[in-house]
Amino acid sequence: MLFSPEPKSDRKDLYDREKELEQLKSLSSPISLVLGLRRTGKFSLINVALNELGIPYIYIDLRKYEEKSYVTYKDILQDFEKEINRLTHKFPGLLDLMKRLRGVSILGNSITLAWGGKDKVSFSSLLETLNDWGKFVLVLDEAQELIKVRGLNLLPIFAYSFDRLGKVKIILGGSKMGMLYRFLRVKDPDSPLYGKAMNEVILRPFTKSQSIDFLRRGFEEANVPFNKEEDVYETLGGIPGWLTYFGYKYVQHKDFEKSMKETLEYVKGLIMKEFDNFLLDKQIAKERYLRIMKTVSKCATWSQIKNSLESLEGRRISDSEVKRYLDNLMDASFIEKKEEGYCPSDPLIGITFS
Questions:
Q1: With bands split at pLDDT 50, 70 and 90, how would you rate the model's confidence at 15?
Q2: Is residue 124 part of a domain?
Q3: Which of 42, 163, 180, 335 has the fewest CB atoms in 10 Å of its CB?
Q4: Is a pLDDT exceeding 90 seen at residue 221?
Q5: 219 and 344 within one domain
Q6: Average pLDDT, the chain
Q7: Do 177 and 148 belong together in one domain?
Q8: How many Cβ atoms are within 10 Å of 342's Cβ, its own excluded?
Q9: pTM, entire model
Q10: Whole-number Å distance between alpha carbons of 338 and 323
């Protein structure tokens, strides 16, 4: 159902994403990027694509590392280990290939991957083994968190897989698009991924007409009368996740004000949690970032932002500092640059900081 709060797994529950779904399923490049703001349905799209492709896959959700300032090789390998064990229980033949790898221990039908010492497992060797096994998809969701990885350089491994491992397809999901591009360094001539064409699937917020139609269909599906679709859009904008949450709440309560209040509280809580995670390694500049977000809540020019920061601290702040703060906020998809200046990337981000 359209208003179901769970991630979608069936095409019929995806609204107006047929083009994006087919583009992702094409796997037209060894590496696909699924990009979009928070709650635009990236996981649901990936989930439906994997179900329809029917290819064995490993899915690692990196959101859990948003609250960490760094990620270790052990963290990544333990995530991989859980998924490999899921696969070997379903495909026992994979176990025979895995046991040939250095650093792999087998007990019964389960494997353990050594993450340290001279016998630690090579990540590229893991991908080579999976490539020898057959067609395979590796999904790394919220892949911008990989920028925090210490003790493992993934870019040469991705490049090697791109060039040499024809049966392995990699899908990288990302809601902080600038940060993901910064991690991949696709425009850096010194990057192993420089010049490699990737399959970019972009999920944009719904337009006004799409949002209204989505709400109408959802309420018809739930057999609940409703006639305030435009009011919902004017408040929440076109982020599918926010519209879905409102619809779910209204079906429960049949009360517009209560449902909208609960939706806004839920959304603001999520946005502030994500902003707190963003600030984890930026505590020294915390007040500056908060001031910028308040200043741009209804859009602001460069000069207005700089003046606001200087007013906060009572001293001159260099252009380079202002640029760094704005670039970091844009990379994390909290703000975007428009003709009128710097604005929240999602209307509810503006409401949260106003």
A1: very high
A2: yes
A3: 163
A4: yes
A5: no
A6: 96
A7: yes
A8: 20
A9: 0.94
A10: 15
